[in-house]
Design brief:
Layout (H helix, E strand, L loop, with lengths): L6 E6 L2 E6 L10 E2 L8 E3 L4 E5 L6 E6 L6 H4 L5 H7 L2 E7 L4 E6 L3 E5 L5 E5 L1 E2 L2 E2 L3 E7 L4 E6 L13 E5 L1
Antiparallel strand pairs: 1-2, 3-4, 4-5, 5-6, 7-8, 8-9, 9-10, 11-12, 13-14, 14-15
């Protein structure tokens, strides 16, 4: 469970606990665990994807999805004008067969990241249609399909209109 405050609720039944994010962290959006149970990983408003490394270390930077992002300009910032530069990762999901992390970035499309944290591929269109504002993401582990939402296909960025698109991995 994620909300706008700088923490992630961590559930180990029957009790809940919170995983504290840095005070400069804004807007955790999605959470995912890798195939080894590592994480959670979460995308935040300043363009980073963070990975939880345990209670002694906390969250660390895992990957950034914008080729234009710099720490000085983006870390801890949340202005809409900066999201086009810094990126805004929303949906996260791992394909367990390869360990690759797929990220929907509102401004930079679908991003494939290797388990090492190295960006392998940026996909900005599908069948000749450019993505407008990618949001949620899920992966069918059996069929190898990525399902995601392009909520900007008809409306301006930030408005809620959903258009489901899928593409094979």
């Amino acid at each position: 469970m994620l909300n706008a405050s700088p923490h992630i609720a961590h559930c180990q039944f029957p009790a809940f606990s919170k995983l504290q994010l840095s005070l400069r962290t804004i807007g955790p959006e999605s959470a995912a665990f890798d195939r080894k149970g590592g994480g959670p990983y979460t995308g935040i408003a300043d363009g980073r994807v963070l990975k939880y490394q345990g209670p002694k270390v906390g969250f660390t930077d895992f990957v950034i999805t914008s080729p234009n992002r710099t720490k000085e300009r983006c870390d801890g910032k949340n202005g809409p004008e900066l999201q086009q530069i810094c990126g805004r990762p929303f949906g996260l999901g791992f394909y367990n067969k390869t360990g690759d992390l797929y990220i929907t970035n509102a401004y930079y499309g679908l991003v494939k990241v290797r388990p090492s944290g190295r960006i392998a591929q940026r996909i900005t269109s599908f069948k000749g249609r450019r993505f407008a504002f990618l949001d949620a993401l899920d992966i069918d582990q059996k069929l190898g399909f990525i399902y995601f939402v392009d909520s900007g296909a008809i409306f301006q960025t930030g408005l809620v209109a959903l258009k489901h698109i899928f593409c094979p991995i």
